[in-house]
């Protein structure tokens, strides 16, 4: 009887041990599966939809600085706000020569250019007997309400819209009658007025013009005298800008 009772006790203990081991194995499997699910979920949360992630990243770290933001330290600055950065300095290496011709009346080597809008342009010529070298202007300023003011002639206020070029300098704005050379397209002598494409620079002798979507900047490389022409404003300057601190 004692032997039989002992055997039953041993069997009961073994059965209990098997149950405990089985329960432990099941618990371990459940824990491993749970950890595996967390790891599987992590990539979708990080990667997500590529478009969404790209949009979020670009909104925090834009690829380019907003327009009008301050220049970085040591960066070149334009002589007046809005003008071409290199204005007032030497001729840009990328500047293209303007096609020239000899004018019918003045018998002077000349050239013209006009912006894509047709509202801003310049005439250039070799210095005449009085030292005049051409002019630049904004057609929308040719009215009594010109932002540059007006000149009273014969009781009529004529808007200032032309900047004369003489002695390698840009003169004070004045009025003008008739049309300029760059407004005549094509010119009567067959000259095709070049359209100054945005992002390009052009030159005639020592005069340079840089065309940008916000305006036309022209200057003389000998004196640094120039003017920034835009629909909103027209500002003269002397010499190049500096560098930001």
From TrEMBL:
Chain intervals with Low complexity compositional bias: 62-75
Compositional bias (Polar residues): 49-61
Ranges for region Disordered: 39-98
Organism superkingdom: Bacteria
Name of the featured protein: Uncharacterized protein
Lineage, uppermost ranks: Bacteria, Bacillati, Actinomycetota, Actinomycetes, Mycobacteriales
């Amino acid at each position: 009887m004692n032997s039989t009772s002992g055997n039953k006790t041993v069997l009961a203990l073994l059965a209990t041990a098997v149950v405990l081991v089985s329960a432990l194995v099941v618990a371990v499997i459940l824990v491993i599966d749970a950890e595996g699910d967390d790891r599987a979920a992590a990539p979708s949360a990080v990667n997500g939809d590529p478009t969404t992630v790209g949009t979020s990243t670009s909104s925090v770290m834009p690829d380019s600085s907003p327009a009008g933001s301050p220049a970085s330290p040591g960066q070149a600055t334009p002589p007046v706000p809005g003008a071409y950065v290199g204005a007032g300095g030497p001729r840009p290496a990328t500047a293209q020569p303007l096609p020239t011709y000899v004018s019918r009346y003045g018998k002077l080597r000349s050239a013209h250019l006009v912006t894509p809008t047709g509202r801003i342009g310049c005439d250039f010529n070799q210095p005449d007997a009085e030292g005049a070298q051409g002019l630049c202007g904004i057609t929308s300023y040719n009215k009594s309400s010109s932002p540059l003011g007006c000149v009273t002639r014969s009781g009529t206020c004529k808007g200032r819209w032309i900047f004369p070029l003489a002695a390698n300098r840009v003169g004070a704005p004045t009025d003008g009658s008739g049309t300029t050379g760059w407004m005549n397209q094509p010119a009567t002598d067959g000259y095709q007025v070049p359209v100054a494409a945005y992002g390009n620079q052009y030159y005639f002798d020592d005069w340079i013009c840089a065309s940008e979507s916000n305006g036309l900047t022209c200057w003389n490389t000998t004196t640094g005298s120039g003017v920034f022409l835009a629909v909103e404003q027209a500002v003269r300057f002397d010499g190049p800008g500096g560098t930001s601190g």
